[in-house]
Amino acid sequence: MNFKPANNRIILLDIVRGLAILGILLVNMLFFTTSLQAIQFQLELWPGWWDQAIQSFLDFFVSGKFIAIFSFLFGYSMILMKDSALKRKRHFVPIYTRRLLALLLFGLIHGWFIWYGDILFHYALLGFLLLLFHKRAAKTLLVWACLLLLFIPGLLLFSGPDGSYEPNPEWMEQVHQWITADEAVYSSGTWAEIQELRIRDWNSSVMNQIIFYPQILGLFLLGAYFAKKKWFSNIPANYSQLLQICLWTGGIGFLLQLIPVILKLTMDPLTMWMNQFEVLQHLLGGPLIAVFYITLIALLIQKGTWKRLLSPLSSVGRMAFTNYIMQSVICTLIFYSYGLGLFGKIGPAAGSLLAVLIFIMQVIWSKHWLRYFRMGPLEWIWRGITYLSLPPLKAKKSVKD
Fold first, then answer.
1. pLDDT of 221-247, one tens digit each?
2. Cβ contacts of residue 281 below 8 Å, gap of 6+?
């Protein structure tokens, strides 16, 4: 198999980005199929053992990890873009500013008219803060990344335990009424009704996401730090360093994941400090495991067998922007009333199976598309806005495996 990426791309990044697209879809499937009210209030709508088992698997190995990878790669890509601009003697800041403004527009279109759970809008806003760090040294990026990643967990620990909380039955009855109304709109409502609810959910989603801005920016800076260190540019030469990072992040990350699980099995789930441990599980364990996954793949693809096994993910990764939006289009057509209207009718098990099937389709489609074109259609538009000229889209010749 010819495995040389076009334009000297770092193949690891494409593979990891492709894997992140799968992980994000697995997590987002809950939001595609379930009322935002049920998710925000952590209501259990699918008590069956199979659904519970799949959801537990997703919570432990997937939730928070792959969106962290996406954020890490966003920061990493900024440094790559800057290096490329310098080599071509172009001004980086105007180029990257146009890139962010275009992403902001794409994010608003996605969030307002396709699916409320958009992340591109937030990445664009935080990208302007990330831009302030593009000249900083690697050590400075690491310090700021650590401070930002520890900010919310630090506030949580400083505030102390909050004890147990028993929801008011009357309030919960109101929440269930909201959930029923949401399900009715998304599964059988008119376009106008869905659009009204989509905007309302987008507003709620934006407010919820703002809380995690320090976390996202910290991951951006962590990715930029790795790019500055250039560990992935020559993996064999940095194998020992990457192995240490892999072992430490995996060990500590999964330990943070296990502590709340053990406490739930041995203690009352409403015990004081339980909420704090669960937040640490997500806000610290998630980023650590994300770095573990990235470095693990970097080490694995040094072996021919693993490289061939994971190589199909690179096609999806090269078209990550297009595939991310495509997932929203496909899933809203499946679950909303202007499609199949299956909203609220599919649990975690069936939803995860559907996510895998959609992703397999994207792998096949992406490989086929890249035989004839240089990049995905949305990547092509985005690049055109970024550089104020549309690049050639059609490949000079098809790529043969």
1. 999 999 999 999 999 999 999 999 999
2. 256, 257, 259, 260
